[in-house]
């Protein structure tokens, strides 16, 4: 196996995956839209490429694994928009393609459970764009596609502690609201397992075992820091940006049984309490 991977939109989750693969001798090439980020990417042992702006067609002839993290925009999936013909040509030679989607494709289920067989009824434009992007990738013949639907991602540098410390954290209370989450290291573990055991066409939910109301997470973070509990605010009257308010349009609990069964995945952080404790231990 060539063990070369091209990572489109080399962001938070892709960096965590690369941190596992690079020490094993993998060649990882990561795209970024900003030349300013190249030095930081290179410092992790990943080869940076500014894209769009660089012709990556030759790279598609060198790699046998592709990770897709770039979010769709108003005009669709950015990789397919620029490189669909090249992807189609490369598809038969690729061993594994991973697409990082979102559990937002399921829409609102008023706090009920969903799994990979649940109908895709997104409640937001972002969710609808993801459904369309998933479908576009699935339509490519001979592509060894694996779709990972990610719950809310957190991890080192991306969590509630900074806002709690700054006194800007908010406990927004909406009756019945519940979210699923996933620690970035558990995403990385799942991607590594899937690469080792490809199953083209597979769709996996990635989330922890403990869906919870968002105010509980903020409250627990404050408790871990020994700081006062941020005041509760009613969702109906709280001042929020349209983007922030849109996250509350969907309430559901996400099942992860399939990836546990098929790949033997076991989250290192099965709930937000263990995940937050680990983050605080790493960066007190």
Average per-residue pLDDT, rounded, comes to 95
Structural class: alpha/beta
N-to-C series of helices and strands: EHEHEHEHEEHEEHEEHEHEHEHH
Q: Radius of gyration from the CA trace?
A: 19 Å
Spatial gap, N to C terminus: 41 Å
Report the total helices.
Answer: 11
Number of E-state strands: 13
Shape: globular
Name given to the CATH architecture of the domain at 4-154 and 182-208 and 253-268: 3-Layer(aba) Sandwich
Sheet having the most strands = 7 strands, parallel
Instruction: Say which CATH homologous superfamily of the domain at 4-154 and 182-208 and 253-268 is assigned.
Output: NAD(P)-binding Rossmann-like Domain
CATH class of the domain at 4-154 and 182-208 and 253-268: Alpha Beta
Poorly predicted ranges = none
- In the CATH hierarchy, the third-tier topology of the domain at 4-154 and 182-208 and 253-268 is known as Rossmann fold
Q: Helix proportion of residues, in percent?
A: 25-40%
Would you spell out the secondary-structure blueprint of this structure?
Blueprint: E1 4-8, H1 12-21, E2 27-32, H2 38-42, E3 47-50, H3 57-60, E4 65-68, H4 78-90, E5 96-102, E6 113-114, H5 125-138, E7 145-150, E8 152-154, H6 161-166, E9 171-173, E10 181-183, H7 184-196, E11 203-206, H8 214-225, E12 232-234, H9 242-246, E13 253-254, H10 257-263, H11 272-282
Parallel strand pairs: 1-2, 1-4, 2-3, 4-5, 5-7, 6-13, 7-11, 8-10, 9-12
Helix pairs in contact: 1-7, 8-11
Care to describe what's here?
There is one protein chain. This protein is α/β, with parallel strands linked by helices and 284 residues long. It has a domain at 4-154 and 182-208 and 253-268: Rossmann fold. The chain is 35% helix and 18% strand. The strands form four sheets. Strands 3-2-1-4-5-7-11 form a seven-stranded parallel β-sheet, sandwiched between helices. It has a two-stranded parallel sheet with strand order 6-13. The chain has a two-stranded parallel ribbon with strand order 8-10. The radius of gyration is 19 Å and the shape is globular. The model has no long low-confidence stretch (mean pLDDT 95).
